[in-house]
Amino acid sequence: MKTTLQLPFQLKGFLELGDAVLITDSNHIILDVNDTYQKVTGFEKSKIIGVKAGFIKSNLTNKETYCSMKDSLKQQIPWSGIFVNRKKSGELWHSSITITPFKIGNELYYIGIFRALEQLEEGLYISEDKKIEVQRELLKVLAISCEIRDPGTEEHLIRVQALTEKLLKAYNEKNNLQLEPNYMNNVIHSSILHDIGKAGMPEGILYKPGALSIYERKIIEMHPLTGADILNKMSKEINYDFIKSMEVAENIILYHHEKWDGTGYPFQLKGEQIPLEARVVSIVDVFDALTTCRPYKDSWSEEKALAFIDENKGKHFDPLIAETFISLF
Ligand SMILES: [Fe+2]
After folding, report:
1. 274 alpha carbon to ligand 1 midpoint, in Å?
2. Which site in 5, 91, 151, 162 is 20 to 30 Å from 50, CA atoms measured?
3. Domains and CATH numbers, the chain
4. For the whole model, what pTM was predicted?
5. Are strands 107-116 and 92-104 parallel, antiparallel or unpaired?
6. Which residues make up the environment of ion ligand 1, defined by Cβ < 5 Å?
7. Does the annotation mark 131 as catalytic?
8. What separation in Å is there between the alpha carbon of 115 and the centre of ligand 1?
9. Which Pfam families did the record assign (predicted)?
């Protein structure tokens, strides 16, 4: 790869700017950085000159961000956006960057000017970590408030979340699925929402001891649809994109009572038509319900509940996920 490794004198003035500045050649090889860049990132100039500018990528920046950057730069148009990079210490560095292409003779250079977002006024920017934290808290409040009538709810939700995490991670590892960490976090944190639709169910039916009539069962079987409706109404009211992207939560709510053999509800989906996240939460939910004592039913022992899951793999449950679940105990 051709690089001049020489910063033309015409560009030296950029290094005097107060913000962090990085200058590369047309192949994104670093030619120089200023003092602020070194101070903010912790990387010494002498160690990074000649290195590709992408070395501080954290992989938390959206792919679309990189695509839009490449598109603009290809057309030699300046580009601005938000990068999440990593400092030398490993700490994340959220910054707004403007990259300006600069032609001198036949050579093209890129001037990258960073501004740390932590310094911007509060309210303009929310870091990825903060977003995840806020989302998690909101989901928990929503789940608990929808099931507030049941005194054991919070403990049930915490157990479902913890078991979903164990099961999903074990299933991912065992089958080398290489699921995205973001997706897995989303499933784990959304699992507590599976029964929010119970908020719309009459208590007399929900906690009725003994068998339900056909009509009572029909009403209970509406809870996935009611839950998806509650979720959609809530996310419409909240004006943040990260709350609006609720597909995983919606799948869990809608499909956690579908069965592998197509005899579940509300859509009678079969096998892999049922989204993975719902197949996972389904096993965890049944196991927790069986092993918990409620006013209207006794609890089963762990062994008996595991035997039930084993007997029903390939019928009620995804057989591979059921096997992984049993192997956790
Ligand atoms: Fe349910």
Report:
1. 15
2. 91
3. 9-119 (3.30.450.20), 128-327 (1.10.3210.10)
4. 0.62
5. antiparallel
6. 195
7. no
8. 47
9. HD_5, PAS_9
